[in-house]
TrEMBL record:
It comes from Rhizobium lusitanum. A divalent metal cation 2 binds at residues 121, 184, 217, 248. HAMAP family: MetAP_1. One of its GO terms (cellular component) is cytosol. This is Methionine aminopeptidase. Keywords: Aminopeptidase, Hydrolase, Metal-binding, Protease. SUPFAM superfamilies: Creatinase/aminopeptidase. Its EC number is 3.4.11.18. Pfam families: Peptidase_M24.
Amino acid sequence: MVNYIEAATAPAKNTGAIRLYGQDAFAGMRKACQLTARCLDELAAIVEPGVPTDVIDRFVFEFGMDHGAFPATLNYRGYMKSSCTSINHVVCHGIPNDKPLREGDIVNIDVTYVLGGWHGDSSRMYPVGEIKRSAERLLEVTYESLMRGIAAVHPGSRTGAIGEAIQTYAEAERCSVVRDFCGHGVGSLFHDSPNILHYGRASDGPELREGMIFTIEPMINLGKPHVKVLGDGWTAVTRDRSLSAQYEHTVGVTATGCEIFTLSPGGLDRPGLPPLQG
């Protein structure tokens, strides 16, 4: 049985209950999430061939410090970086290092800032220079998968509606959906209930209720969905070494649908890709 709890009275840990946040929390999340979105906007001018991902990570740290925020990943369960940078066949949790990005790479940059006790969690894909059409298409399919998942969010639906919308579209485009990782509740905690699967049936999962806050972050592969985690305990890669992509937004359920907290203020939600039509 799924339990829901008013966030203001909930303990400061993940108990499995789903928190329902009020308007003050939504206001706090807007500030934290917009800071994250602004950082991701700035990174569009930094990502280019020859730039090591450590340079990106240092920018994320310094941008947060300059704005009174702390990167949630830094020192999280032993993770020692301020961001995740996942390149090409890396599905998620790629660790920044001194290896330069190369022309034709695609890289996901995942940033979470803690500002005023609220967690703003988002990621975007960045093409590095000129990329192949197959890579560009993967980015387009992945972004559209995210937005279709978000469009399924409204009170009375279930979390499975998000997964069904994503899976139906991605697989129709001859791509696969990673099963090993999922979206999650977020807000006053970095990772909270419920899990948001990116596959499934609309009848599955907890009911969506006004006040819920969570991430939707589909990982879509050009090849098969299977992944493995490398020996560092963090880096997840596709088993068949096919390209993988991910976009992530943090959303809050409203009375009529949802609010996307992490929308780019500069219109760079899919940097490097042609503008959407319509």
